[in-house]
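Example 5.3 — Chaperone SurA
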Amino acid sequence: MKKLLACVLAAGVLYGPASLPVAIADAQEVQSIDRIAAVVDESVILRSELDRAVNNILAQYAGREGQLPPRDVLDRQVMERLVLVKLQVNRAQETGVRVTDQEIDQAIGAIAQQNRVTPDQLRQQVTRDGTSYAEFRNSIREELLIQRLRQRFAQSRISVSEAEVDAAMSAQQASGTQFHLAHILVALPEGATPEQIETAQKKIQGVKTLIDRGEMDFSAAAVRYSDSPNALEGGDLGWRGMNEIPSAFSDLMRSMKPGDVTAPIRGPSGFQLVKLVEARDASQAAPALVTQYHARHILIRVDEDTPDAEAKAKAETLRARIAGGADFAQVARENSEDPNSQGKGGDLGWFTQDQFGPDFGDPVAALQQGQVSQPIRTQTGWHVVELLGTRQSDVGDENRRAQVRETLGRRKLEDEWNRYLREMRGEAYVDVRGKTAEQAPGTTPATPPTSGG
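Solution (predicted structure tokens):
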């Protein structure tokens, strides 16, 4: 359990690094006995926050401390994570992203369920491990804010064309192999000078030399030297299909064996080393028969102008009207706040249970044909749903296309999101104080020997 909590609090649930932040009001109360470690625009990071986050990393590496960089380097790496988290949370709040107490409770309940404990038992474990429950809840709140900021970013910036899906499916048929990859990044700023490029080249080649000589394994080198947000996870990129791998690397993957490491490669973010950890055959076709649901819904959004309780009350009122005999389609046309389905009387067409996420799909799957749901809460707001029918459908090819489209979108999002974070970091006012102040933004201070050293 302690290891799980360390992972939740230090590594992030879904969208990049997390922190153990203290609310600004709390920070102001304890500034007399706690030092400010950094000022990030109008927010602060306290030394106690940094120490807690570092201690959680140390807990994850218990028994493997030799893989971590020196403490001052680790402090700087974790500080950079905390700065990015603070910037993302601030940006989310500035753009109207909100998280309710109920949503935090639901997220904590999910964590407890995954670990087969009750929420009360989870709370007791958190406090036993030295974290106040208020801090734990705040860390979950910030995770959810970052998730939603990233979702909004994806909706506004990321699109995948049918031609891209066709090309990726052709490539997938040619190679049904998936690759487990890890990487080390030596980042370069936008418009890097020749001197910066030369320094980065020397550094990445020095790292490669250490690995080739057997003086350091790839994972330890990533922890110590990589500028990537996943450095403290050993640079692990997980499993990728060929269509998820940038073209600069995909041709190399075909000729590599597990354990091989590429020569330094220049990419949009800087210089990289990529390791093929292992490969597997993923050519099995997805199951052809799936259950599809035909439903219509009414959405009442929760946003800065409509609090959760008000939206829920409106959804309950609309459901009562339908239960009293009002026409569902007409009520949807007049009241639904989903622009994609409002004009169709709320009709969503046919969809699979997981298509709109479990918060929506699971309650719909539990309905009987013709039944109207109680209000259902999702990240978007409150829904009233009527199930019109179900069917078993052969959508194997459709599923594969959907999976490929999602994969391509995820790859594009990863690239664009990292670029967005670099821009956000470059535009921010960040004053790092104390021992961590020596590091230049976006760089890793530990320097390996050059290729000749």
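Remark. The chain has 15 helices and eleven strands.
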